[in-house]
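Quick one, tokens below. Sequence please?
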């Protein structure tokens, strides 16, 4: 008979531990992003192949899944942007119990993924949720010139009446001014290392050369308990081709227009589905600006490479931009904007 002073939570914990007997609890691989580093593709691959992962002893839990990412977990432990989405937030104790109930004795590894974990939030609730589990933190990092251009392209797709000025440089300046830690890889990694230990931090550079044969396999190669990738399907080629720079500029302009919602949606749809084949797809940033961005972060790249990858040849291997390349995409004229609008609505005539 169980003594009355032993609480039901303790009994529940003992029952959970008993499933593993002499085994240690499964290792959690917590994928925290960074955003714009193939995160959605990784999450979709794991979601689509949950059963195959499970046969190899890897759980990609149903608990906390929103679409194919664990936003329900990241939100419930405090990693979210205001205003909080109520449909993404759950009672933490119940969520934790449901999570543990999903773990079978044959599981050796658990993958949780949400890029919202890059937010600068308190670890207390996350620590409670992960209590007892060995935990590894996996983060993908992208060279900043590529990252800023990709982040800007995503922002102009999503943000109506953006608070920054027109163009990518205004976007960069706004974010640097309003959040000095935004895009600061060293700050992010060291913050997680101080909480979980540097030996539990896994940094992966986001580059084709370093993610062969694909980013999903690159991720799975970090799961130390997994010895063979032969049973896993090849990751499908990402068909989401990046928008041309001219389309991105049009989106930035459209999001600032004082028009009806339905009009804005039509304009955005047209821009995102027009190939702009008559425009040369030039860079949004000059070679000089890109080199300056890289130089600003080079010390951090080298620091992270030495400390976490144990190598002296840097974090990224892609060729540097041409310093003299000033052939950037100029902004569309008023006439081009008018032609774009007319072309959009000519489809309805």
């Amino acid at each position: 008979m169980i003594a009355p002073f032993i609480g039901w939570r303790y009994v529940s914990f003992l029952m959970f531990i008993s499933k593993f007997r002499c085994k240690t609890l499964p290792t959690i691989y917590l994928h925290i992003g960074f955003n714009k580093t193939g995160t959605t593709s990784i999450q979709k691959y794991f979601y689509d192949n949950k059963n195959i992962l499970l046969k190899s002893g890897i759980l990609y839990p149903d608990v906390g899944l929103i679409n194919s990412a664990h936003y329900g977990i990241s939100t419930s432990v405090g990693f979210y942007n205001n205003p909080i989405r109520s449909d993404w937030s759950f009672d933490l104790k119940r969520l934790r119990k449901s999570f543990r109930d999903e773990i079978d004795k044959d599981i050796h590894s658990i993958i949780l993924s949400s890029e919202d974990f890059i937010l600068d939030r308190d670890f207390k609730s996350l620590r409670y949720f992960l209590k007892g589990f060995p935990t590894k933190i996996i983060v993908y990092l992208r060279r900043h010139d590529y990252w800023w251009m990709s982040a800007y392209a995503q922002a102009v797709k999503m943000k109506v009446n953006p608070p920054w000025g027109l163009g990518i440089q205004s976007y960069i300046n706004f974010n640097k001014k309003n959040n000095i830690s935004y895009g600061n890889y060293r700050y992010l990694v060291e913050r997680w290392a101080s909480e979980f230990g540097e030996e539990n931090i896994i940094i992966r550079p986001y580059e084709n050369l370093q993610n062969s044969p694909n980013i999903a396999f690159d991720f799975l190669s970090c799961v130390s308990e997994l010895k063979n990738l032969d049973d896993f399907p090849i990751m499908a080629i990402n068909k989401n081709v990046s928008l041309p720079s001219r389309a991105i500029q049009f989106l930035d302009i459209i999001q600032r227009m004082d028009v009806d919602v339905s009009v804005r949606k039509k304009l955005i749809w047209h821009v995102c589905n027009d190939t702009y084949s008559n425009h040369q797809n030039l860079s949004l940033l000059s070679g000089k600006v890109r080199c300056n961005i890289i130089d600003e972060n080079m010390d951090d790249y080298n620091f992270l490479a030495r400390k976490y990858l144990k190598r002296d040849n840097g974090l990224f291997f892609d060729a540097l931009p041409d310093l003299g390349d000033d052939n950037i995409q100029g902004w569309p004229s008023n006439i081009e904007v008018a032609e774009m609008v007319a072309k959009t609505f000519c489809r309805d005539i």
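The first helix runs from residue 8 to 18. Strands lie at 27-31, 58-59, 109-113, 135-141, 201-205.
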